[in-house]
TrEMBL record:
It is found in: Cytoplasm. Its EC number is 1.4.3.16. This is L-aspartate oxidase. Belongs to the FAD-dependent oxidoreductase 2 family. NadB subfamily. Signal peptide: none annotated.
Length: 524
C-alpha cells in the first residue's frame, strides 16, 4: 500500500456503500460513515430482488429494451447497456460472498436459482431471497465489511457538508459526532452513497428514508443534479395508518396478485394491456385515480387465488408482517396505497460514479446514472447499486493519491434543535405530498414554490442564528432540494414517466437541468 494517505471516504452504508467499500478496501483504506439509521433505509427494505439476465431463455437486448420502455424516452442507452451487461458478474460476486438466494428445485429449471417476474419485465429475471432480498444482501455485506481490516466503520458521525479545496476539488466531509461536536474528515476521494429523497414526502416505503441531503451537499460544491422531478411512488405500500411503513413487493403482482378497488372490482386490465404488470408509473397513477373515483384512501391487492402454500412459500416476510398487523392475506386482500419510494434523479455521474466535481463520486440512489430515465423499472435499483459501485471501486483502485491532513475535531458544539423543527419537516412533507406527488398541476406547483420559499426563509433564520445540529442541517438540505425539485417540475412542460401534469399532458422536448446557478437563484 502506498505511503501517501489514499483514504477513501464513503458516506452511507446501504448496499451501494458497502459494495464499494468491499471492492476498494484491498487496495486503499476506507472510512465508511454508516449511522445505525442506515439499517432502516431503502436497501434493507428492497423485497423483490435484483434484475439480471441469468436465464438461458433471456438475453441482454430484451432487458435493455424493457428498461428503455419503462424509462419513457429519457434513459441513457449507453448507461442501460453498461448496467445490463455487467449484471451477471455482479450477481456471481454476491453469490461468492454467500448471499443465500432462493434456489429453484424444479426439474426443468434452466438456472439454479428461482427467478421471478415484475412489472415492466418481459421475462423472469429477478433473482431474490424469498421476499426479503434487501435484508439478506445487507446482512451479508455488513458481515464482510465488519471483518475487513482496511474498512473503518464510523457509526458515531453524521456528515452535514463536504470539504472543498482552493482548486474546487472535494476533499472530505464536515461531520458532527453524537455530542454535536464538529469533526472534519479529510479524504483524497469522497463517495456519496446517501440514498434518495423519498423522505421529502409524508408516506414512504422505508421507515427512515433519506431526504436528499447528499444531493444538496454535492450541489453546494457545484455538482450537476438531474431529473429531480422524477420521484417514483411504489404502487403498493401496506395501508396501515397505525403502523410503520411496509412495502408490498412488486413480485406479489409478478406472481399473479390482482389489484381491486374497495368494491372488489379489478381495474388494471381497463387501464393498460399489461394490467398489474405495467410499469410503476402507470400502476401508481391508476391506483391514485381509482382512489379518487371511489372516494377511498386505499385499494386492495388480492393473492387469495394463489393458495396458502404458494403465498407462504413466495412471500413469508409479507405474510408474517401482515399477520402481525391482524391481516391474514390467505383469506383477505391486502389494503395498499402508493408511497414515495425511489428518486430517479440525483447527482449526475459517469459510468464510474464520477461527478463533475473532482474527487467526488456518487453511487446508488443519490446518483443519476442515466439508467432509469423518467421511471425506474422494478429491481433495476439494486442492480445499479452493484454495477456502479463495483465500477467506481475499479476507478478508485487506480487513482493516484497525495497526502492529506489528519482528521480533526473542534470544540464547537451544535445547539439543540429548535422546538419547531418537527413541525417544519411535517409542513414540508405535507406540501410535497399534496402538490408534487403522483399528479401535479401548474397551480399546485406554484403554491408549492411559494410555500417552500417561505419555509426556507424560516429555516434559514434558524440556521443563521444557531450552530446547526444534524437534524436542522438535514432539514436545511431537504427544503432547498424540495425547491429545486419543484422548479424542475415547473420547467418540464410535458408529462413523461413519473412526472404527470394534466395541464401539459403530452411529451415535449428536452428541458434544462438544475445547476449551481439555480441554487443561488432560489437562495436569493
Amino acid at each position: 500500500m502506498p505511503d501517501a494517505n489514499p483514504e477513501v471516504l464513503i458516506i452511507g452504508g446501504g448496499v451501494a456503500g458497502l459494495v464499494l467499500a468491499l471492492e476498494v478496501a484491498d487496495h486503499r483504506p476506507v472510512t465508511l460513515l454508516r449511522p445505525a439509521s442506515d439499517d432502516q433505509g431503502a436497501s434493507r427494505w428492497a423485497q423483490g430482488g435484483i434484475a439480471a439476465v441469468l436465464s438461458p431463455g433471456d438475453d441482454f437486448e430484451a432487458h435493455v429494451q424493457d428498461t428503455l420502455v419503462a424509462g419513457d424516452g429519457l434513459c441513457d442507452e449507453a448507461a442501460v447497456r453498461f448496467t445490463v451487461e455487467n449484471g451477471p458478474a455482479a450477481i456471481e460476486w454476491l453469490l461468492s460472498l454467500g448471499v443465500p438466494f432462493t434456489r429453484d428445485t424444479s426439474p426443468d429449471a434452466g438456472y439454479p436459482y428461482h427467478l421471478t417476474r415484475e412489472g415492466g419485465h418481459g421475462a423472469r429475471r429477478i433473482i431474490h431471497v424469498a421476499d426479503a432480498t434487501g435484508r439478506a444482501v445487507m446482512d451479508t455485506l455488513k458481515a464482510h465489511a465488519a471483518a475487513h481490516p482496511a474498512i473503518r466503520i464510523r457509526d458515531d458521525l453524521t456528515a452535514i457538508g463536504l470539504l472543498q479545496d482552493a482548486e474546487g476539488c472535494c476533499r472530505g466531509a464536515r461531520c458532527l459526532d453524537a455530542a454535536g461536536r464538529r469533526v472534519t474528515l479529510p479524504a483524497h476521494d469522497t463517495v456519496l452513497a446517501t440514498g434518495g429523497a423519498s423522505g421529502l414526502y409524508r408516506h414512504t416505503t422505508s421507515p427512515q428514508p433519506a431526504s436528499g441531503e447528499g444531493m444538496l451537499m454535492a450541489a453546494e460544491l457545484g455538482a450537476t443534479l438531474m431529473n429531480l422531478e422524477f420521484q417514483q411512488f411504489h404502487p403498493t405500500c401496506l395501508y396501515d395508518p397505525e403502523g410503520s411503513p411496509f412495502l408490498i413487493s412488486e413480485a406479489v403482482r409478478g406472481e399473479g396478485g390482482r389489484l381491486l378497488n374497495v368494491h372488489g372490482e379489478r381495474f388494471m386490465p381497463g387501464v393498460d394491456p399489461r394490467a398489474e404488470l405495467a410499469p410503476r408509473d402507470v400502476v401508481a397513477r391508476a391506483i391514485d385515480a381509482e382512489m379518487q373515483r371511489t372516494g377511498s384512501d386505499h385499494v386492495l391487492l388480492d393473492v387469495r387465488h394463489l393458495g396458502e402454500a404458494a403465498i407462504r412459500h413466495h412471500f413469508p416476510t409479507i405474510h408474517a408482517h401482515c399477520a402481525s398487523r391482524g391481516l391474514d392475506i390467505v383469506t383477505v386482500p391486502i389494503p395498499v396505497v402508493p408511497a414515495a419510494h425511489y428518486s430517479c434523479g440525483g447527482v449526475a455521474t459517469d459510468h464510474h460514479g464520477a461527478t463533475d466535481v473532482a474527487h467526488l463520486f456518487a453511487v446508488g440512489e443519490v446518483a443519476c446514472t442515466g439508467l432509469h430515465g423518467a421511471n425506474r423499472m422494478a429491481s433495476n435499483s439494486l442492480l445499479e447499486c452493484l454495477v456502479f459501485a463495483r465500477s467506481c471501486a475499479a476507478a478508485l483502485r487506480e487513482a493516484p493519491c497525495t497526502p492529506l491532513p489528519e482528521p480533526s475535531a473542534g470544540e464547537v458544539v451544535a445547539d439543540a434543535p429548535p422546538p419547531e423543527l418537527a413541525e417544519w419537516r411535517q409542513r414540508l412533507r405535507d406540501l410535497m405530498s399534496r402538490r408534487v406527488a403522483i399528479v401535479r398541476r401548474d397551480a399546485g406547483l406554484a403554491e408549492a414554490a411559494s410555500a417552500l420559499a417561505a419555509l426556507q426563509a424560516t429555516v434559514g433564520e434558524a440556521v443563521a442564528r444557531t450552530t446547526p445540529g444534524a437534524e436542522l442541517a438535514s432539514l436545511w438540505h431537504a427544503v432547498r432540494l424540495a425547491r429545486l425539485t419543484v422548479e424542475c417540475a415547473r420547467r418540464r412542460r410535458e408529462s413523461r414517466g413519473l412526472h404527470y401534469n394534466p395541464d401539459c399532458p403530452h411529451h415535449g422536448d428536452a428541458h434544462p437541468q438544475p445547476s449551481r446557478s439555480w441554487l443561488r437563484e432560489l437562495e436569493g
